[in-house]
């Protein structure tokens, strides 16, 4: 064997840490709501990079903003200095939400870890060091870092990494269980996904969320909504909490925020924010000028009233069609969802449906063993939704 041959690059997967079970598809490019493999075969994308690519692929607006941001020459400045894009984005988020302050970071798990720290910092001022517990709900997914993993109800994700972060517990999705668990002396915060994504696309009940709001408020416990997956237009509302008429004290965002670039955010109300001091938290990259410029553009697009009305209207239609597919095929036990976020419980392993769909040119993903999850880009038209539904029905039949 020649030296050159020995130095030749290994097949690319060999150098990647094998933490992912990847589908047999290489994505080479994207346009609209389709991605293409290196041979040019098209796939209709009902995954959106797991609820990230809300505006689809090759969006002209995002491209123009990136070009403009690049022309400044400053991709990164650090948080030692002021930058206009982060300021403008924070202002836009505050204007559109319950929040009075925003912290930027780089991912969903990081946003939740930040929210936990802010809630604990606030709780320290309210009840002393004993008021530090963070509670999460059965079926929750909040990320894979230490505290966010401790708040994630997936035994297989947790088991190899014990001991998990302390002072974080899981409670049943049940008002009487929460009534017992929400001890005002010991609990700093309760974190909730208004629509549980990874846990099977479970749209939490309005009365349940209202009861949680009432209980947390009266007991001085911070309520955190994790809208990493269900936020920024996916439910047909800019924030999922608007659909319920229940505002949290803190809210976390990530996935679609910067149009496919990594970015997370924590939104805080005035009460929580007033407890935070310089030095309490930090991250090198958070809110850099490139990602913040793109995020401001995405936010303006997805908060447009007509855009959101379209997601609500087509999302409702998608739900009706999925229920009709369930009836016609007899292979679907339940249909759950809202907006452009749907889960169907299938009678076979969900991974079989995902594989069969891939072969037919449709990308879908799972949310648990028997739930197939649909997260189309928010710009997907009714015709494109119908095309995906047709493929899904063929597979299920
Ligand atoms: C609701 C929710 N929270 C947090 C996360 C973690 O986000 P990230 O993968 O960006 O750390 C996810 C990711 O799927 C999520 O769906």
Describe this structure in words.
- With 397 residues, this protein is of the alpha/beta class.
- It has two domains: 3-59 and 305-396, Alpha-Beta Complex (Aspartate Aminotransferase, domain 1); 72-302, Type I PLP-dependent aspartate aminotransferase-like (Major domain) (Aspartate Aminotransferase, domain 2, 3-Layer(aba) Sandwich), CATH 3.40.640.10.
- It has 15 helices and 17 strands.
- The protein has helices at 3-7, 48-51, 60-71, 84-95, 108-127, 146-150, 155-158, 175-181, 206-219, 240-244, 270-273, 289-302, 305-329, 350-359, 382-396; strands spanning 29-31, 34-36, 42-45, 101-105, 133-137, 168-171, 187-192, 195-196, 202-203, 222-226, 250-253, 264-268, 332-338, 341-346, 362-363, 365-366, 371-374.
- The strands form four sheets. The protein has a seven-stranded mixed sheet, sandwiched between helices. A four-stranded mixed sheet has the order 1-2-3-15. Strands 13-14-17-16 form a four-stranded antiparallel sheet.
- It starts with a helix and ends with a helix.
- The model is unreliable at 1-11 (pLDDT under 50).
- The structure holds pyridoxal-5'-phosphate.
- Residues 50, 107-109, 112, 141-143, 193, 197-198, 226, 228-229, 254 line the site of pyridoxal-5'-phosphate.
């Amino acid at each position: 064997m020649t030296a050159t041959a020995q130095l030749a690059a290994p097949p690319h997967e060999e150098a990647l840490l094998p933490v992912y079970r990847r589908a047999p598809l290489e994505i080479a490019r994207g346009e609209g709501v389709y991605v293409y493999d290196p041979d040019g075969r098209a796939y209709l994308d009902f995954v959106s990079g797991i609820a990230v690519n809300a505006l689809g692929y090759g969006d002209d607006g995002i491209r123009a903003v990136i070009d403009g941001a690049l022309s400044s020459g400053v991709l990164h400045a650090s948080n030692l200095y002021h930058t206009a894009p982060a300021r403008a984005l924070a202002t836009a988020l505050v204007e559109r939400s319950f929040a009075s302050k925003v912290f930027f970071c780089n991912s969903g798990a990081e946003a939740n870890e930040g929210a936990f720290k802010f809630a604990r910092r606030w709780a320290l001022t309210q009840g002393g060091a004993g008021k530090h517990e963070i509670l999460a709900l059965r079926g929750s997914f909040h990320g894979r870092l230490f505290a966010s993993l401790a708040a994630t109800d997936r035994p297989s994700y947790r088991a190899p990494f014990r001991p998990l972060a302390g002072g974080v517990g899981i409670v049943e999705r049940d008002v009487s269980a929460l009534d017992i668990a929400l001890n005002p002396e010991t609990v700093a915060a309760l974190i909730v996904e208004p629509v549980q994504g990874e846990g099977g696309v479970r749209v939490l009940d309005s009365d349940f969320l209202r009861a949680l709001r009432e209980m947390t408020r009266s007991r001085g416990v911070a309520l955190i909504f994790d809208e990493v997956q269900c936020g920024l237009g996916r439910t047909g509302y800019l924030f999922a909490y608007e659909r319920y008429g229940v505002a949290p004290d803190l809210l976390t965002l990530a996935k679609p925020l910067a149009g496919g670039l990594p970015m997370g955010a924590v939104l805080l109300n005035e009460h929580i924010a007033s407890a935070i001091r310089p030095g309490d938290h930090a991250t090198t990259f958070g809110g850099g000028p490139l990602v913040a410029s793109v995020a401001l553009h995405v936010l303006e697009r997805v908060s447009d009233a007509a855009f959101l009305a379209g997601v609500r209207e087509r999302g409702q239609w998608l739900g009706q069609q999925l229920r009709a597919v369930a009836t016609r095929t007899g292979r679907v036990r339940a249909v759950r969802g809202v907006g452009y976020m749907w889960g169907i419980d299938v009678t076979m392993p969900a991974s079989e449906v995902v594989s069969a769909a891939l072969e037919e040119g449709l990308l879908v993903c799972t949310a648990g063993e028997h739930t197939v999850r649909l997260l189309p880009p928010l710009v997907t038209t009714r015709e494109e939704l119908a095309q995906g539904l047709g493929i899904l029905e063929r597979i299920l039949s």
